[in-house]
Write a structure and sequence with these properties.
Elements (H helix, E strand, L loop, with lengths): L3 E4 L3 H14 L5 E4 L3 H9 L3 E3 L11 E4 L6 H11 L5 E4 L6 H8 L4 E5 L9 E8 L6 H11 L3 E5 L5 H10 L1 H18 L4 H20 L5 H8 L5 H11 L2 H31 L1
Parallel strand pairs: 1-2, 1-4, 2-3, 4-5, 5-6, 7-8
Antiparallel strand pairs: 6-7
Helix pairs in contact: 6-11, 7-8
Length: 278
């Protein structure tokens, strides 16, 4: 069983620490490096080993998860560059920071960049990932990496790192799109006289049921929509409005804008980090 060091004990760092320890039934395989005193107290109360700085046995950890905020990368880079071992793999969950930028500042090639989403703690998440210097990853190491990443849900490897911008727009931001739709369904129910609790129950159960149908059906979404619809009926009337307002087109335009913003964010972070490290 591999030992894993997590750099950053904030929300996502703790999510991975808990998920890993629950799977392996051992908290002593995880060590957390965290600068903030208040976070250290919480981490210790949960039973994890932690410290403000890299431990003396840093070389024992095969995988290093970088879970700090992207803006904090410059503050940890000098220490990591000094201590990182050639055989260690870095798994970055720092949004917007490219493998090339990490490689240049740490003088290290073995990097896996990931884009997880909000559902990771519930093991129903989705993580897109890109492996830099893929030829250096042995079959045994890849098996361990895939096992680690799948602890939070489904995964998808991309061959082009730029595809992680699309993953960010689709899956990283995706839960917010879903929450927005649920909110509108709830608001519609409230406008018809239902209470907030009733509206939430109607919206959630309707969507949970629809997801079950979709998961267990070989039909496409288009076919399932037709099955719910009847000529001159209520569903058809709703879709007439959706189509008139170009709801589908506008939704895709929103996702495309999110993709563009992900690319812009990466460039802004690169400039910020380079200025900090000069």
């Amino acid at each position: 069983m591999n030992k894993i060091l997590i750099y950053g004990g904030g929300n996502m760092g703790l999510v991975y620490a808990k998920t890993i320890s629950e799977y392996y039934h051992a908290k002593d395989r995880v060590f957390i490096v965290e600068k903030r005193e208040e976070n250290l107290k919480k981490i210790k109360s949960l039973g994890f080993s932690c410290a403000k700085d890299i431990p003396e046995n840093f070389y024992c950890y095969q995988y290093i998860i970088l879970a700090v905020k992207p803006q904090d990368f410059p503050s940890i880079a000098p220490s990591l560059e000094k201590n990182i071992q050639e055989n260690q793999w870095l798994i970055s969950i720092m949004a917007g920071i490219s493998c090339e930028l990490i490689k240049e500042n740490l003088n290290h090639k073995k990097i896996i960049r990931t884009m997880p989403n909000l559902a990771i703690p519930y093991k129903e998440g989705f993580t897109g990932f890109y492996i830099s210097s893929k030829s250096l990853l042995t079959e045994v190491e890849k098996e361990s990496v895939l096992e680690l990443l799948t602890l939070g849900g489904k995964i998808l490897e991309v061959e082009d790192e730029n595809d992680l911008n699309a993953i960010t727009a689709l899956s990283g931001s995706g839960p917010a799109y879903f929450f927005y739709f649920v909110e509108q369904l709830q608001n519609a129910a409230i406008s018809k006289g239902f209470s907030k609790d009733q509206a939430k129950m109607i919206a959630l159960q309707t969507l949970k049921g629809a997801l079950k149908v979709l998961e267990n059906s070989e039909d496409t979404c288009e076919t399932l929509i037709r099955k719910v619809s009847s000529r001159g009926g209520t569903t058809e009337a709703a879709f007439q409005v959706f189509n008139e307002k170009k709801l589908g087109e506008n939704f895709i335009q929103g996702i495309n804008r999110a993709n563009e913003r992900s690319e812009e964010f990466g460039k802004e972070l690169k400039n910020f980090i380079l200025n900090k490290l000069l």
